[in-house]
Every structure is written in C-alpha cells, then in structure tokens.
Amino acid sequence: MAHADRDTLPNVVKPSHYAIFLANLELGGSWGYNGTVKIDASVSKPTKEIVLNVKEISVVKAEIQAASTSIKAVDISYDKVSERATLSFEKEIAPGDVLLNIEFTATINEAMAGFSRAKYKATVTPASSTPKADEFHYMLSTQFEACDARRAFPCFDEPNLKATFDFEIEIPKDLVALGNMPVKSERDGSKEGLKIVSFERTPVMSTYLLAWAVGDFEYVEAQTERKYNGASIPVRVYTTRGLKDQAYYALGCAHKTIDYFSELFGIDYPLPKSDLLCVHKFASGAMENWGLVTYRTTAVLFDEGKSDARYKNRIAYVVAHELAHQWFGNLVTMDWWSELWLNEGFATWVGWLAVDHFYPEWNVWSQFVAESFRQASQLDSLRASHPIEVPVKNALEVDQIFDHISYLKGSSVIRMLSSHLGQDTFIKGVSDYLKAHAYGNATTNDLWSALSKASGQDVNSFMDPWIRKIGYPVVTVAEEPSQISVRQTRFLSSGDVKPEEDETIWWIPLGIKTGSESADIKLQALTSKSDTIRDINETFYKLNRDQTGFYRTNYPSERLAKLGQNLHLLSTEDKIGLVGDAAALAVSGEGTTPALLALIEGFAQETNYLVWSQISTSLANLQTVFAGNETVATALKSFKLKLVTPAVETIGWEFPPGEDYLTGQLRKLLIAMAGNAGHEGIIAEAKRRFQLWASGQDPSAIHSNLRSTIFGLNISEGDRVEFDRVKEEYLKTDSVDGKEICLSSLGRTKNPELVQEYLDLVFSDHVAVQDVHTGAASLAANSKARHLLWQYMKSNWAAVSTRLSSNNVVFERFVRLGLAKFSDIGVAEDIKSFFQDKDTGAYDRALVIVADSIRTNARYKDREEQLLLEWLQAHGY
Ligand code: BES
Ligand code: ZN
Predict the structure, then answer these.
(1) Element holding 672 (H helix, E strand)
(2) Residues 6+ apart with CB under 8 A from 580
(3) 327, 351, 381: which is the final residue of a domain?
C-alpha cells in the first residue's frame, strides 16, 4: 500500500533478511571500513532499478542474484538530499525472490549518528589494540534512530520494512564486539591479530533498532530472577575498562525491570540477552536498540557515595524507559514516524510506572506532575506546538518531533486515559495490542481498538482530539448556589486565543474531589463546550483529581484562595497542579500574579520536595520575566526569602544516614532557594564549606548532594577565585555527574568577563558537543548572562554552527534552551532577522518556539509589571 502522505522508497523491493559483514576497520587511522551487505528481498514487479537509502557511503559494487542468473548494476547514482542511491542494472529484474549483493565503503564518524567513534580518557591502562590519539582512546558504537542506519550500511531504512539480521565484524583480537544478539562464533581474521565475530540472527525488526559496538569493554552481570523458557536471561552493563564499578546500580534496575515488564505485559522478554552499554559521546540520553541499549555516561553510571542521589532517580527511569521499548517500539513498532508518540509517549508513562513499582517512596507521579506535565503543558500552550500525532512526510523531518509533545504530552494523555479506564484494564488492552502485533507494525488506531475491546468503551472517540488536535483546554469554573458551571476553551499562554483556534471540544474527565477520601469523587466528564454540575459542596471542592487530566482549571479568585486554606485536603499532585495552574493562568492573563503569590504564601509549612520544586520553578519564571525591573526583582527576592526561611532553617545542612531520598532533595532545593534569595546565614555557610573544600583543608566539606547548590551559590555570589576553582574541578574531575554539575554551576557567574571566558570554555574542546546545551541552559537561566550568550552566538556564528551542525539533536537543543528565556520583543526581532538568511532546517521548530516564548513573556511583563509591584509593596516585600 502506498501512502500519499509519506515520502517513502518505491514500493517494489521488500527486504526480509540482511547479512552484514564489516572488515578492514582503519582504527586510529583514516577510520574507513569496507562492508558487504547481502539482502534477501522480494521484487513485486519487473524493474531495472533498485532504490535504497545511503548516507556518506560509497557503493563499490552491486549485483542481483535471482534464480540462476546474476545481474550487475551498471550505474549507481546518489541523491544526497533524499539520502538515497539508485542502482541501475544491466537487465530487467523479474518479480520474485532475489539476493541483492552490495559492497561498499564508509567511515566511522564523530557525529554520534550512524557508526561513530567516541574519544575518552582511560582511567586504567587499556588493551593494547584500543585505538588511540594522544592521551585519548576510542570506542565505537552505533546510533541509528531515526534515519542513520543508512549512514553505516546501505539499507531500506524505514520502520515498517522489518527484516532479520546477521552481523559479522572483523576487529583486533583483544577488543570486544557487541551486537543486538549474543555472539555466535569467532574465527581468525584476514590478518594476524584480527578476529571475525559473528552474532546470532536477530528476530524480525526495524533497521533503526540495529546496533553494534567495539571497544576495550568490561562488564558486570546479573541474571533475571524470572525464568524464560526455563532459564534466566543474562543482563550485563558494559563500560570501557575502569568504569564497571559504577555500573552496579543500573544493573540492579535493569534485571528487575525486565522481569517486571515481562509480567506486566504478559509477554516474555523476547531476546536471549540484554546488554546496556555506556557510550562516552552520546547526543541524547539513551537509545533502545534491541538487546543492546546505549546510554550517555550520566544516564547509566552511578558512583555510590560520590554521585548526587538525583542521578539514581534518573538512571532508574532511563533504564525502565528503554527497556519498555523492548516491547513497545521494538517488538511492536509504529508503522511510520508520524506515530512516534506511540513509542515515546508510552515508554515514558510505563517507564515511570516501573520506577513507581520499585520506589513507591519516591512519589514519582508527583514528580511527573511537577516536571513532565509542567513541561508538556508549557510547550503545548504555545502556537508553536503541534498535535501529538504529527504528519511526517519526509522521515528526515522527524528529529525535531522527539520533543516534549511526543514524550510528555503523549505520556500525560496516556496517564489520563489509564486513570479513566482503570490501570488494570488499560494494561490488559496494551498487552492484547502487543500480542496482536508482535514482530510487526501498528498504529494509534490499533492501540485504541485493543483498549476499546478491553474496556468496553469507545476509546477512539474521546481520545481522538487529544491526539490529533493541537493544544489543550482550560476549564473555567463559575459558582452558583450549590452548583458550578464549567466551560472549556483552548489555553494559550499568550492569552489571546482567536475563535478559529478554539474549535476543538475535548473530552475532559472532571474528577471533582469533594473531600479527602477517594470515595468523595465525582467521575463526570465534560464533553461539550460547557455544562452545569449539581450538588457541589460549597465549603470544599476541587477539579482534576491528582492532576490526571491534561488541562488547567481556572477557579473564581475567592475559590482559589479558599483552596489555599484547605491544602490538607489535597494530595501532593493536587497541590502541584494548583500552583502550576495558577502560575500558567497568571501568564495568560486569566489569573493574576498576585493571586499566584497569595496562594504560594500558604505553602510556607510545606514539607514535600516535589511541591517545593513546583513553587521554585514558578518563582524562577517570575524572576526571569521581571528581571529587567530592579524594584520588582528585589521585591520578588524578598518574597522568596520570607517564604523559604522557616523551611530552610528547619531542615538544616546535615544529611542524616538513612534519610529518605525526597528529604535529601528538599534540603538541596531549599538551600539553593534561600541562597538565591539572599539568606545571609545560608550564603555564609555555603561560602564556609566551599572554602574548606577549595583550599583542600577538608575535601569532604561539600556533601555529594550539595555540589550543585554550593558551587552554584559560590559562583553567583563570588567572583574569579570561585570561578577558577570550579573550572579547575571541571577540568580535572573524572566523576561523571561532577563534570555536568561544575559546567552548569559555572554558567551562574554574574561577571561579564567571566561569562565570556565561560563561553570560550563551552565552545572549546574541553566541553563535548553533547554537553554544550548544559552551558546554554545555564546562561539562559542567568539574567545577567543570557544576552551575552546571544551576543556571542551572533559574533561567532560560523564557529558555533560548525561545531553543532554535525548532529541535529544537539543543534536544536542548543538553540531552544539558549534563547527561549528573553522577555523583550526587540530580542525576538533581532533573533528573527539574524536567522533570516541562515539554513535553519535542523532547528526551525526551535526558532518558532523561541519566538513564541519570548512574545509570551513580553506580553506578560507588560501587562503585570505594575500590578505585581503594587501587590509586593502593599505586602511589605
Ligand atoms: N528513542 C529514544 C532515543 C532517541 C532520541 C533517538 C532522539 C533519536 C532521537 C530513546 O528511547 C529516548 O527516549 N531517550 C531519551 C531518554 C529517555 C529516558 C527520556 C533521551 O535520549 O532523551
Ligand atoms: Zn524512548
């Protein structure tokens, strides 16, 4: 079936099996290699041409073997833009089964896409054949999603052209090769010192999930507790030599999660092994290659007692997310990239479900509301957003869809649906879906059908607008005696929605709480523009129980104030949602900043980290937007100081042994908030501890959980001495999270000269391309520095873009994180005109988001500045 809305390969050749052999790897030299790929395929109509995908590959020779004849390709032409090669054969190929034989050459690149090499500093003596340059060594690995398998070998690189794969590679004898499947055999290579490693045949799978790696690897291993066909499955975490001791935490997560998902989905983990590989240069966080999941270092390594506990939470989640894909994505794959959300939205939701199962005390659904819901609803309140299911005509456009809409709005609407159907029913439907489409491809409609069957409800009808329409609603409540009327409208943070942008009627589960018990809930849904709900308790009610619905609630102002006095009746998710909604409504103009601040004042006694995290984010946004007005900025600072002082003085500085994770994180957050708000005692103590550590007098003066806070405060309150000391630490530490923490802290300096130095550092070889966005995000959050970042980008654009252009994920992220925090229309215009004549293909979506965010901030500032100032002054701040 041909799809008019997809720009795909001609529908003539369908591959069923690939045998790939790579040899003559020029390790440490030219980095070239020779490959052969033999593709079993069926040809559906007579043709003299075969078109397949290649990128940065030269086809040396191609030949078709069919029946007893062989037909040579006489011409090979390349289309660089569409990343295709056309093989023209000397004779017509008859329909039927053929073997397509291709010899090619390619390069092991540094792009973190395709087949790449990654430079690293070895902490112990590596094996002698490890490729080397100066004090650096190299490991090799692949990253094929979305469209880069074609950069490693010629292939039919589309998610629904599934096939089986045999893989063989020739490498030095003392290195290790990994693939999706276990090693089948090893034999001597073509030269002394080389071996050829071959791997077992994979199940039927998509090209983007194929992977291999080569390096001086070591591993830690565990076995699943569950038995699969009578035996446990080996689970290994591979690192380059010297790092495996930091792999145990991820290992423990991984083997338990495999058992958990096998049980949850009612389908055994489909492969005979599961490897995790730590990759030194990695553009995103992790990649779910079937049986060989790759990770950036900070998403898999944890140094007990030395790493910030926050990274445990991250690792547990990333591991679960990627393992969820082994079923959802790998076993059953979206038919085409327009349904990417199926993969990513689901893996996000079920990843958190697994973490919640193993760590109920982490309260991850509150974390979800404070982080994921917040970011999804923020992006989706811009005109620059897009529907969850998005037309992707050309697969090369899909890179920019790996965004908060696919992941976070996608998982938020899944959470809403699961909470409506009941989790058991929901999982039953998912399991049926996975079983029905195993080793195949499926669509959103296939999932809805399975869920409809499992639940007896017409899921498609009420989920459709959530998936196919842009945006989400705000429900505005009006009160009448013992009843309320509710009305839905599209929510835009610019607050200026036009009638033609407000035509969607969403299905909205109202989840009205009327007391603290779970029985006190009205499970009505709003299915029209407006409606009346009767029998409402006037003393207390709240919509959107646990913030499971993907919408905002706009209460009359007296009701919001009342809710603020009844916080004890609310769940943690409710409280986070209440603050988040109030903050967003202040931005759009449907609420006010004074109402938000009055609500927040009521949280002084709060003890939950995740509630504080939402408060902190909301206040930080005010500080960003109103930074240009000194009086407002100072008053906001004193608001924050008064709010946080009792809490920070209660929680103190020490981490008692055995303390729970959330309390530890709360301490870190409160100290940071108090310090930023100018709390003198906190700043003095942060300086004292820094001093002890910096001078070497007491290397343990800074608790591992407090490095980001203490470094950050000392950089922002201090000057060159502190900056130089943290920079020195950045350059010399081999702690994986330590590097990230130092880099981020350095961006908090207020000294323009140091900002320049920092920018030079960020764009030097001391900062890996994959981490450049950490610098951008840090400067963008710093009101004294964000315009210097923009200045730097303009003055050094050639260098900046050369450095970032090798990888689209990296480039897009840099532009978006670096520029979205301004609140001056003038800057938006400057940005627009600067990029006018540039090739912005890799990040055009980011630019629209940047423009929209700045406009929203500017409107907000202009509308509220005066009102906010009056309120702050009237309240003594
Ligand atoms: N499939 C993605 C990896 C990916 C991202 C490939 C972008 C191509 C482009 C993977 O499953 C993923 O979602 N990784 C996340 C981390 C995850 C835990 C949210 C990432 O890399 O950010
Ligand atoms: Zn994913």
Answers:
(1) helix 661-676
(2) 369, 370, 373, 374, 377, 547, 614, 618
(3) 327
What's the mean pLDDT when you consider all of the chain?
Answer: 96
Residue with tokens 């054969």: 89
Residue 2 inside a domain? The answer is: yes
Is 322 one of the annotated active-site residues of the chain?
yes
The structure tokens listed for 124 are 């112990």
Q: Is residue 406 in contact with ligand 1, taking CB distance under 6 Å? A: no
**Pair 356, 498 in one domain:** no
First to last CA, the chain: 67
**516 secondary structure, DSSP code:** S
Residues 6 or more apart whose CB falls under 8 angstroms from that of 159 comprise: 206, 207, 208, 333, 334, 335, 336, 337, 441
- Residues 44 and 52: their CA atoms lie apart, in Å, by 15
User: Residue positions in the annotated binding site?
Assistant: 321, 325, 344
What's the gap in Å between 285 CA and the centre of ligand 1?
6
Structure tokens belonging to residue 197: 């490693």
Tell me the CA–centroid distance for residue 740 and ligand 2, in Å.
22
CATH number for the domain harbouring residue 264: 1.10.390.10
Q: 296 with 286: CB under 8 angstroms? A: yes
Ligand 1 pocket check for 408: Cβ under 6 Å: no
Of 591, 612, 627, the one marking the end of a domain is 591
Mean pLDDT of the 238-255 span: 98
Give the pLDDT band (50/70/90) at residue 1: low
pLDDT, residue 225, reads: 98
| 256 and 154 fall within a common domain | no
Same domain, 79 and 197: yes
Q: How far apart are CA 714 and CA 652, in angstroms?
A: 18
Decide: 804 and 810 in contact? Cβ < 8 Å.
yes
- Is 150 found in the same domain as 12? yes
> 581 is in which domain, residue-wise?
472-591
As given in the structure block, the two tokens for residue 538 are 């006037």
pLDDT digits (tens, 9 = 90+) for 596-633: 999 999 999 999 999 999 999 999 999 999 999 999 99
Residues in the chain: 877
Whether residues 398 and 507 share a domain: the answer is no
Please give the backbone phi and psi of residue 513, each rounded to the nearest 5 degrees, phi first. -90, 135
- The number of C-alpha atoms within 13 Å of 27 and in the hemisphere containing its C-beta is 22
Please work out whether the CB of residue 287 comes within 6 Å of at least one atom of ligand 1: yes
Both tokens of 287, joined, read 């990649």
Type of residue at 692: L
* C-beta of 344 in contact with ligand 1 (< 6 A): yes
Q: Which residue out of 83, 322, 397, 573 is catalytically annotated? A: 322
pLDDT, average across residues 441-447:
97
339 and 455 together in one domain:
yes
The answer as to whether 571 is a domain residue is yes
CATH number of domain containing 522: 2.60.40.1910
Q: Give the residue among 703, 704, 770, 782 at the shortest CA–CA distance from 746.
A: 782
**570 found inside a domain:** yes
Which phi and psi angles does 116 have, rounded to 5°? -125, 160
Q: What is the CA(98)–ligand 1 centre distance, in A?
A: 36
Does residue 421 sit within a domain?
yes
Our count of domains for the chain comes to: 4
Record the tokens describing residue 796, joined without a space: 């050094």
Write the pLDDT tens digit of every residue in 838-859.
999 999 999 999 999 999 999 9
Tens-place pLDDT, residues 488-537: 999 999 999 999 999 999 999 999 998 767 667 788 999 999 999 998 98
3 state DSSP class of 289: coil
Q: Give the pair of three-digit tokens for residue 81.
A: 């833009």
Residues forming the annotated binding site for Zn(2+)? 321, 325, 344
Ligand 1 atom with least separation from CA of 296: 21
Enter the tokens of residue 262: 């096998």
Same domain for 506 and 415: no
**What is the DSSP pairing of strand 512-513 with strand 57-66?**
unpaired
Residues 223 and 337 in one domain: no
Distance CA 549, CA 530 (A): 17
